Amino acid sequence: MSLIFAMVGTDHHPFHRLVDWMDEAARRHPDTRFVVQHGKSKAPTEAEGHAYLPHEQIRELLAEADGAVVHGGPGTIMDARAAGHVPICVPRDPALGEHVDGHQQRFAALVGPAGVVAHVQSAQAFHGAVEAALAAGRAGRVRSMPESAATEAARAHLAVELDALLVPRPPFFRGRRSRLAELSEA
């Protein structure tokens, strides 16, 4: 039986949108096991739900899964990458009350084009990504880059983003590349 495993993380903000999308996917694919670690969000009604799971069980589910669905947290993304997935990434949206700010959206937008995640922003794109994960699983999933390379790529992208966000630039330097950005691309 195929498995799609989703993790919303441990943030206290609800992420009902992702739970609803997983329930809809479970209705569309009754022969597939859908498991959701839903945290403070509502429990799924169609998919199998767990508020929280021990990290070892998360690793086991990721290893077994045909597809991984993650929020936009770098740690969760790296867990999925370490298990060989290019995860379906649905970053939390602060406009929907899912988080305090848009850092997950910025991070997903940054690493999506690099192929670290499949960044989706709509229900339609989500269901297309689930279909692709299930098709790849049936064909024999191709593993992503090894954990160390994925971790290094994510660190480099995160360093560039954090540098741009956290280091104030006097007007003269705005638009210029920082030394950290140059080093992370070397």
At a glance:
The protein is of the alpha/beta class. It is built from seven helices and six strands; from the N terminus they run βαββαβαβαβααα. The protein has a six-stranded parallel sheet with strand order 3-2-1-4-5-6, sandwiched between helices.
Q: Give the ordered list of helices and strands.
A: EHEEHEHEHEHHH
Low-confidence stretches: none
Q: Mind telling me the CATH superfamily name of the largest domain?
A: Glycogen Phosphorylase B
Kindly state the percentage of residues in helix: 40-55%
Number of domains: 2
CATH architecture of the largest domain: 3-Layer(aba) Sandwich
* Ends apart, CA distance between termini: 43 Å
Radius of gyration over all CA atoms, rounded: 17 Å
What is the tally of helical segments?
A: 7
How large a portion of the residues is in β-strands, by DSSP E? 5-15%
The first-level CATH class of the largest domain is given as Alpha Beta
CATH topology of the largest domain: Rossmann fold
Number of strands: 6
**Which class best fits the helix and strand makeup?**
alpha/beta
Oligomer: single chain
Shape: globular
Global mean pLDDT: 84
Quick one: biggest sheet?
6 strands, parallel
In the sheet with the most strands, the strands line up as 3-2-1-4-5-6
